[in-house]
From TrEMBL:
Species annotation: Bradyrhizobium neotropicale
Domain EVE: from-to ranges: 2-134
Name the record gives this protein: Ubiquinol-cytochrome C reductase
Length: 137
C-alpha cells in the first residue's frame, strides 16, 4: 500500500461532502498539473490518502481510500488528465494543521511543506505514521 495526500478547498469540496458520498465515493477530478497527474496514475486501489483542506483551514482532516484507479477525467476536454475515485475512510480525531506539520522537524522534507502548491502528493510511510499519531488515529 502507498500513501498520498490530496488537497481540496473546503468551499469547493469539503471532507463533510466526501463523507456524505459514502462507500460509493467520488471521482477526484480537476487535477491539471502533470506532476499531480502522474501521482494519480501511480495510485492503486486500496492506497490511503490524507484529505487536506487547502487555503481555508490548511489542515489534514481525514483519511480517504482509493477505490478506483486512474481513468480519463471526464471534466478534461483535452484528454490529457486522469482522475481516481476516493471514499472517506475516517476523520482525524484532531486535524493536523500546516503549522503543526512545519513545527515537526521529522516532517521538514514532507511534500506538503516543500511543494505546497502540488494538489496530489506522495507521503512516505514514516510521514504517514507520524501525521496519524499527531491526528489521534
Amino acid at each position: 500500500m502507498a500513501y498520498w495526500l490530496v488537497k481540496s478547498e473546503p468551499s469547493v469540496w469539503s471532507w463533510d461532502q466526501q463523507v456524505a458520498k459514502g462507500a460509493k465515493g467520488e471521482a477526484w477530478t480537476g487535477v491539471r498539473n502533470f506532476t499531480a497527474r502522474q501521482n494519480l496514475v501511480n495510485m492503486k486501489k486500496g492506497d490511503k490518502a490524507f484529505f487536506y483542506h487547502s487555503n481555508e483551514g490548511k489542515e489534514i482532516v481525514g483519511i480517504a481510500e482509493i477505490i478506483k484507479e486512474a481513468y480519463p477525467d471526464p471534466t478534461d476536454k483535452t484528454g490529457k488528465f486522469v482522475c481516481v475515485d476516493i471514499k472517506a475512510d475516517k476523520p482525524l480525531q484532531t486535524p493536523v494543521t500546516m503549522a503543526a506539520v512545519k513545527a515537526e522537524k521529522k516532517l521538514a522534507d514532507m511534500a506538503l511543506v516543500k511543494y505546497s502548491r502540488l494538489s496530489v502528493q506522495p507521503v512516505t510511510s514514516e510521514e504517514w505514521k507520524l501525521v496519524c499519531k499527531m491526528g489521534g488515529v
